[in-house]
Amino acid sequence: MIDLPTGTVTFLFTDLEGSSRLWEEHPDAMHEALARHDAILRDAIESHHGHVVKTTGDGFHAVFVTASDAVGASVDAQLGLAAESWGATGPLRMRMGVHSGLAELRDGDYYGTAVNRAARLMGAAHGGQIVVSLVTEELIRDGAIELVDLGEHVLRDLARPERVFQVAHPGLEREFARLATMDAFPGNLPVQLTSFVGRDLELAAVAKVLEESRLVTLTGVGGVGKTRLALQVAAEVLPRFADGAWLCELATASDEVLLFQVVADALGVLQREGLSMADSVVEFLRDRDLLVVLDNCEHLLADAAWLASEVLQRCPRLRILATSREGLGVIGEQLVALASLPVPRSGGDVEVLAAADSVQLFVDRAAAARSGFALTPGNVVAVAEICRRLDGIPLAIELAAARVTTMSPAEIAGHLDERFRLLAGGRRRGVERHQT
Fold first, then answer.
1. Maximum distance among all Cα pairs of the chain, rounded to whole angstroms
2. Where are the beta strands (DSSP E) in 19-117?
3. How does pLDDT run across 185-202, given as a tens digit for each residue?
4. Contact criterion met (CB below 8 Å) for 259 and 327
5. CB proximity list for 424: less than 8 A, separation 6 or greater
6. Which of 122, 208, 283, 344 stands 20 to 30 A from 422 (CA)?
7. Are the beta carbons of 90 and 26 closer than 8 angstroms?
8. Lowest-pLDDT choice from 111-120, 164-173, 406-415
């Protein structure tokens, strides 16, 4: 078994542009084309001392000890793809993203924010394009590789903006459309202050259901993460909607009138003469291709259901992603019940405890609250106990993690018999309903 590198490494993610269409149009030719594609990619990676971590559909996830090797492999792979004669499929165009960061290796795979950021960079690129992060650019700045500064962009993990650079080479294309990042599309999705942890299966599943249904409602108990998942799904599917994705936060609306005003304000709708605000919103949306996120519908369920029903009937290109403790009860609605994060079993070894999404969430939020916080053999059992005692509920775990500024994980675990008093004051600017 190959010993994969640890410490600070560089990740390369690749993805074949338009592969779904190519498989539909040329199923037989794609088998041969993809085999040649795989050989070109693997040869470029291995010739630059890289390791293929895994293949992801029509793409690769690779790791390198040095940033220069990762970028060199990317260039060679693009040149190899460009030089190949592809026949019926036409040229295979690969987008590539490169990012350097601290590796977290478990069971032959990598986890953590560095992996996620590399994947997000790749997702923002176009076929034939190689983009790298600022961290990687700093590591190869004095080398022979030319880099074009594309400026700061908000990636689809909804976390901090990233300075992005394009790798330039005489044998590669140089002109591409604007990166497919959050700021390239209309909408008002907020930039989140924390990273998105876990929920990979749920993220893919909800995005898939949203392709098939025009109304999808995420349901679950308070604090289970419905809003955060909805925002992440909206960010992932944003490129599908020419008129963007728009968040309407209904928690502040106390009655029907305010509900429609909140939606109108979010969309920038002005009330039209002779029409109610509700009808003005529907008329505004009639011919638009967009996604509306209706967040926290449960306290105005009948009114939210009426609005959803009206716009779905009268606005054929619109889709709705709603969050609520119960479904809206509208014809055609698809319900997705969201469960708590998996928690580690009592008595597991350190690696098993550390691998749980709930533990990863605690560690991520604790590190954001207290610089230098890390999971260690000395605190992993206490962190796992916190996650179990809080039933894997993300909001409760986040509130507990905020306490590491004044308490150790063992102390937090020991005070969970007083969990309501312990957690309620964890955020000075927290949303009031989150403190209950």
1. 72
2. 51-56, 59-64, 94-106, 109-111
3. 778 888 776 778 888 889
4. no
5. 399, 435, 436
6. 344
7. no
8. 111-120
